[in-house]
Write a structure and sequence with these properties.
eight-stranded mixed beta sheet, two-stranded antiparallel sheet, about 325 residues, 2 domains, binds nicotinamide-adenine-dinucleotide, alpha/beta, globular
């Protein structure tokens, strides 16, 4: 992709999800938002349902989406329901896939965890951030491929992060079995894997009418930061006063603004047919060398087709060899 072919939209970085799809009618569109009960995912669900979509919130605890379901119960065109899904538990992913019937117009891989302080493993022995953010979503997307195909035209949207700039995939030790565990390196690796998943799907499923793109939502205060200490948050410029009010730097977004790029990729006609790309602030991002310095753009290692293919094979083999 060159500068001249980079896709631009009329939307500013501050546009909200509702502004992005104003006038778009999603009636009859069936969509899944993982992690849709909180944070950015919750605002994604609301914007898509307001535009008329039938949205399924895939969440570990469906009770947490009760108010969302209630908000869209009634005469309006959009509906919301909540179904159980634990991405770190492949039996749960399999059960979710087995329970899905009919077409699927958009799969939004939004759920995620960040900077888990110690090296935690799933029952299969996989590092928790890679397992949740990537391997669970890989299994989910693969399991739902027929449903995506049967929609005729379907989109996969993967919520990554600017953290993908900081680390590629360590194919020799993805689960930190030998190298020292670092919470941020593990997060960055998993977010690179998110972009590579979109690239991998774009390389394989285009003939099925399925597109896939990844994005960074910006920086938004949500439950995602729960593993960060007050000192770390202060170093990011986030402070909490004695009343509990949180003050954030100017570049932080609201959840509704954070959901905007996801909604652009899931539903806007502006990106019809676009696949294998990475967006931030509602525009396609520039490809840059990864490393500690760049704050925007997508790292070369995150969109490298060879890395995408290698990760795809790795994920297939890993899932195939899972402990029962
Ligand atoms: N908030 C930010 O500043 C920011 C920045 C960059 C990227 N992101 C990405 O945005 C996405 C949404 O994060 P958010 O900020 O809304 O945080 P959040 O914590 O509010 O939402 C994440 C959701 O994922 C769910 N989840 C976690 N583990 C799961 C599992 N095993 N199975 C099913 N669901 C699980 C959580 O329950 C939660 O609902 C994440 O992928 C995150 O990496 C967020």
């Amino acid at each position: 992709m060159t500068e001249s072919t980079r896709l631009t939209t009329p939307f500013t970085a501050r546009a909200t999800a509702d502004e992005i799809i104003a006038g778009v009618d999603l009636t009859g569109h069936r969509m899944i938002v993982t992690g849709g009960a909180s944070g950015i995912g919750r605002e994604t669900v609301r914007a898509l349902a307001r535009a008329g979509a039938e949205v399924t919130v895939a969440t570990r605890d469906p009770a947490r989406a009760e108010d969302l379901v209630a908000e869209f119960t009634g005469p309006g065109p959009g509906t919301v329901r909540a179904l159980a899904l634990d991405l770190a538990d492949l039996d749960s992913v399999d059960a979710f896939v087995a329970g899905w019937t009919g077409p699927l117009h958009a799969l939004i891989a939004n759920a995620g965890i960040m900077a888990v302080p110690d090296r935690r493993l799933t029952p299969e022995g996989w590092e928790l951030q890679l397992a949740t953010n990537h391997l669970g979503h890989f299994a989910l997307a693969r399991g739902l491929r027929d449903s995506l195909r049967s929609a005729g035209s379907a989109r996969v949207v993967v919520v990554s992060s600017g953290a993908q700039l900081r680390a590629g995939i360590d194919f020799d030790d993805p689960h930190f079995a030998r190298r020292p565990y670092d919470p941020w390196t593990a997060y960055s690796q998993s977010k690179t894997a998110d972009v590579l998943l979109a690239v991998g799907i774009a390389r394989r499923w285009s003939a099925d009418g399925i597109t896939a793109n990844a994005l960074a939502p910006g920086v938004i205060i949500t439950n995602l930061q729960r593993h960060l200490s007050e000192d770390t948050l202060r170093s990011f410029g986030v402070t909490t006063d004695e009343t509990g009010a949180v003050a954030v730097p100017d570049h932080y977004k609201t959840p509704a603004q954070g959901a905007a790029t996801t909604v652009l990729l899931a539903a806007s006609p502006l990106v019809e047919g676009v696949t294998g790309r990475y967006f931030e602030d509602n525009q396609e991002a520039a490809v840059v060398p990864g490393g500690p310095e760049p704050m925007t753009g997508v790292a070369e290692h995150s969109v490298d087709p060879a890395a995408a293919d290698r990760l795809w094979t790795y994920a297939e083999e890993t899932l195939g060899a899972r402990r029962r």
